[in-house]
């Protein structure tokens, strides 16, 4: 009897050695296994790994185009995001002939977290993000050794940090394009700033901002991975939160599926992110103010694509930022009245993502933002340019 038990146990061990790890571990092998099951047409990165940058373990990915190469794009994601979330954007860029370099911000994705409880998003100063971005560019991308056009692209928080980077580094990139950059937050009022300052003073800096949840929450009510495999993704019973970000439920399901699989692999450090901390909010308010006074130092052509219906960041702040630059074109998305563009333009329905990529084509074809605006104005009337054609 004991011999049978031992043989059965040995067989179980041997089978487990050949079985795939449960969930998604963030590795290149894990990436290949995940997309084979849930997103078979997804391009595979050349590298997906971690390294030490600016005193932290930072995870990054590199994709190489198989088309005639035009240059490279450094992609800076938004708060709560992770490398895999913006795969639709990388797919477009690769098809247009651009290599893609991107990473998980410290405190997000599978980069090093800042707190013992890993899910709250914490930072004490956005200058740390800026230093991380510069370290990634100088040590991993090494733009001075690259040929072709060099572009910086960013979404939301990544767009804000990207604009601040361009203020300080004038000869790294040839052009830049940002979606819904975080140049203003609706909650950024005098009263809120005073309250946040008090909470920081009282020692609550590492605690969740009031009204936010410490743990990651899916966009959907249903299991996202199961929904993808069944081909049926349903609107949540309370859809307001999902629709803050995108009208494209399939893209939201893909984003949530990555986190679900990562959570299954390691509940203590996965792709998802919960609340912003008090200190993160305090640092964001300060960084937004710091950015306003120096935007005229950005000389390269910049295109900003935003939605007037965005309820996460303020579109009016994007208008002001574009007007402050000497070479900027602002694209205000337009489309269906029943489904106005939400915050996540890069994973929106085709009506809006197509507008983003039309703007990108105009930017890369033009010598400056004024020319890009002129090219776009021939087809659209909802543009604001800070630089008109001579």
TrEMBL record:
Q: Which Pfam families match?
A: Hydrolase_4 (PF12146)
The record's listing under InterPro entries reads: AB_hydrolase_fold, Hydrolase_4, MAG_DAG_Lipase
Q: Where is the Serine aminopeptidase S33 domain?
A: 69-349
Signal peptide boundaries:
1-21
Name any one GO molecular function: hydrolase activity
Which domain of life does this protein belong to?
Bacteria
Which keywords describe this protein according to UniProt?
A: Hydrolase, Signal
Q: Which SUPFAM superfamilies match?
A: alpha/beta-Hydrolases
Q: Which PANTHER family match?
A: PHOSPHOLIPASE-RELATED (PTHR11614)
Q: What is this protein called?
A: Alpha/beta hydrolase
Q: What is the lineage of its organism?
A: Bacteria, Pseudomonadati, Pseudomonadota, Gammaproteobacteria, Alteromonadales
